[in-house]
Amino acid sequence: MNNMPEVKIGVVAVSRDCFPESLSVTRRQNLMKAYTEKYGEEGIYECPVCIVESEIHMVQALEDVKQAGCNALVVYLGNFGPEISETLLARHFEGPKMFIAAAEETGDNLVQGRGDAYCGMLNASYNLKLRNVQAYIPEYPVGDASDCADMIHEFVPIAKALVGLSSLKIISFGPRPLNFLACNSPIKQLYNMGVEIEENSELDLFEAFHRHAGDERIPAVAKEMEAELGAGNKKPEILNKLAQYELTLKDWVEEHRGYRKYVAIAGKCWPAFQTQFGFVPCYVNSRLTAQGIPVSCEVDIYGALSEFIGTVVSGDTVTLLDINNTVPKDMYEQEIKGKYDYSLQDTFMGFHCGNTAAGKLSFCEMKYQMIMARTLPEEVTQGTLEGDIIPGEITFYRLQSTADNILRAYIAHGEVLPVATRSFGGVGVFAIPEMGRFYRHVLIEGGYPHHGAVAFGHYGKALFEVFKYIGVPVEEIGYNQPAGVRYPTENPWR
Length: 494
Fold this sequence. Notes:
Blueprint: E1 9-14, H1 21-39, E2 44-46, H2 55-67, E3 72-77, H3 83-92, E4 97-102, H4 117-130, E5 142-143, H5 145-166, E6 168-173, H6 188-192, E7 196-200, H7 202-211, H8 218-229, H9 239-256, E8 262-266, H10 273-277, H11 282-290, E9 295-296, H12 301-314, E10 318-325, H13 329-335, E11 347-352, E12 365-368, H14 370-373, E13 382-388, E14 392-401, E15 407-416, E16 426-431, H15 435-444, E17 451-455, H16 460-469, E18 477-479
Parallel strand pairs: 1-2, 1-3, 3-4, 4-5, 6-7, 6-8, 8-9, 13-16, 15-18
Antiparallel strand pairs: 10-11, 10-17, 11-16, 12-13, 14-15, 14-17, 15-16
């Protein structure tokens, strides 16, 4: 099942009519040569029809990139550029847009060879705002052919995420569990960013699950699970039920995606799920997420949305964890202090019952859900995937419409330490610089729930640009401020 977007970027060069058009032609050709040499020819298209100087040229270029199947656009200022035509091109193109500009090549050619795109970018940005057109502009958007090729390459994961969101449906099952207002999900902001939401009853899911009893595909899926779990297959008796549930969800996706290309799921997992289905869905959630269909726990709609964005941006499996518990002082003293450059408050443990994919665990075992088993028969809580999360770089992040219906986000780079957790569930010892202050002045102050998405690598730069593009105010994108930089709510005499 292909649930991840691809992009084809159309590169359109523009030229102001009182500047040499040849500058834009030559510079576009050099840009394309630099890009294909560095990153290959796949996924990029050079618009050959014209250099855009007028509104008529704009229409011609727009039709050309559409016919070429482009779903993302790069407007390249080879010289000063026609501020009206170039921004009209962006306005009428349906998909993510990027603006970049050519630097001057040599001090020996600053008369006929001077393009002034450095100046033109200012007018382009001004006109984009006049027309209320959103576009991605890199941190420093002016460069030579090689520089601009790198900028386009950085735009690719951003564009993929934006294309994905424009055709995403989130399918949820049931209301949030009792005493779980933390995953409150005002849905107006989903519609604002172009995401569809389909909310279903748990009874609908339960009925669909029973219709899959005896499905001839169950043995093959259970066999896949056996192979994935290996020696960690401690609950073989539950695999057929888990396979039945996985097939139920996959069939539901195909039957309910409607006109949307991509799907994420916000699933129910307690309190009645275990007693009625006879298992917990954690392992199935992990498998689908690893297959590119993110599934959040506890009907966390914005968690599923965050997972989808991270999966597209990173091109890899993500997970959803509770920002869960402190690292005990004795454990910090024994395992972390002096070995890693983190204070006790920089560390915490990220945990969830068992929804992290096997490929992101150092070891794994199929077990029962210990917390649920404190109040329920153990046999109905089987289906978690337990193990320590693999060490390495991570990005902890979340996009959320908070209680006041404002779109907010946070991003923090850190790492999972190679420290044994001595605990249960899918769990890891996390370290984020200045986590204690970030916890208080971003997570608590911003009204975020306890669930955070985790991408395996540092992807803050791309995530920041995605969040900006979809309308999160920059002042509402929190991050872990370095020591010495005060948060607005931080007591200066702390």
